[in-house]
Amino acid sequence: MERKVFAGGRVRRVRLGLGLTQTAMAGALEISPSYLNLIERNQRPLTVQLLLKLASTYKVDLDALQGEGGGLAPQLREVFADPLLAGEIPGDQEIVEVAEAAPNAALATVKLYRAYREQAGRLSDLAVLLASEGREMATSSSRMPMDEVRQSLERRPNFFPRLEDAAEALAKTFSAGDDLPSALRTWLKNERGITVRTLPSHVMPSLRRRYDRHSMRLFLSERLSPFDRNRELATEVALLAMATEIDAELDGLSLQTAEARRIARFELARYAAHALLMPYAAFLAAAQRARYDIDILRARFDVSFEQAANRLTSLCRPDAAGIPFFLMEMDHAGNVVRRAGAQGFPQSRFGGRCPKLGIHSAFAEPGRILVDRVEMPEEDAFLTVSRTLEGPQADFGERIRRTAILIGCDIGFAADVAYAAALPATGFAVESGPACRICERKACLSRAEPPITRPLGLDEMVTGLSAFDFQ
Fold first, then answer.
1. How many other β-carbons are positioned within 10 Å of the β-carbon of residue 421?
2. What is the pLDDT of residues 105-139, one digit of tens each?
3. Per-residue pLDDT tens for 58-77?
4. Domains of the chain, first to last
5. Coil, strand, or helix at residue 387?
6. pTM (2 decimals)?
7. Which of 245, 199, 257, 244 is CA-nearest to residue 224?
């Protein structure tokens, strides 16, 4: 089947470059001026005959006429794939039209976007550097709501006392003979008249959970693991039974926008769900007996590895605290999905953006637990545990969503953690840094960017092992 070529912008540029009117070019091509006008407005495609005529009459490169915006369209797709702009342009056709009709403006947009990403990266690293010196950058009122919520949650202890107390009180009302998922379903039915159904993926292809207020039914996707279905049940119960406590904790976050509050409400409901599935006192006692072995805890409380690991970061009740763990989740492209910590995520001491960390290596060995001793430049050292996580069940032909999780603590707690037994007897440690741009380790084979704190070494006679030499 012959591919239609809409190249109105390129034809118009050829005509204007030659200083021709539509009437003059139409005469040379043996078509009417009105037909040429339709071609230039992309309301008619270029036929093979017209393409050949243009090439022979005006010495035009056929590839240039048939290409996508001179190679700008793929670059514009990258720009509009950014979460900040996603959804602004519904399809590829408009991107191609912009690239064709206004290539200079399209190129300027691409340059501006790349400069924005570069500056955003530099500001992020500068914020880490200032935080390590006890200073903080002034926050901008133009932050995205999700960024506002993440920063608010990452900087504080991952502990919400009102939700913990409410979850423990609610858990005590469940019948002793019921397993927790049955107890949650019974509560929804008896207290709110809500029934729960699991739907096949073709009926609910794009949703995890949907609550239908009219029929009083909660629908869960069969693509979720049993553990994630239980969390969705617990989340719904938390939203209904702990609304007052969630609002009180929400007020304490001092968020600036209504959208940020809605995002944070869901995060708090998820926290409350974990508190219901793993009540504080019972979970802390089990964690201490198991020496914080996550696999033992996940089996005992019938939860996933990710859920048990997340719960470990919230064991910081003042009168009954566990080891102060911190956690980071990341996808295979290096995007940070979540950070949390019992004392706040240790951004200034640990950073978390070093390519040497086990969280990156975990993707090469899905399902395997990697244990490392990580030493930082300022003599801080951490015990870290990394492992991949699987997302919802993928359809045939669909790529699995896989992320990796890193949970860590100060090396001084290693004696109380089961994973310390996996550390090399030789004392080998991963020499890490908070991020390449603020790390001054020399001869680092994993360095991805030069440090912003040191001038580059530009000696033509000497080349170091690192991709970037500096003085």
1. 9
2. 777 777 787 777 777 766 666 665 555 555 554 44
3. 877 766 565 544 566 777 77
4. 8-107 (1.10.260.40), 144-277 (1.10.10.2910), 293-434 (3.30.450)
5. strand
6. 0.72
7. 199
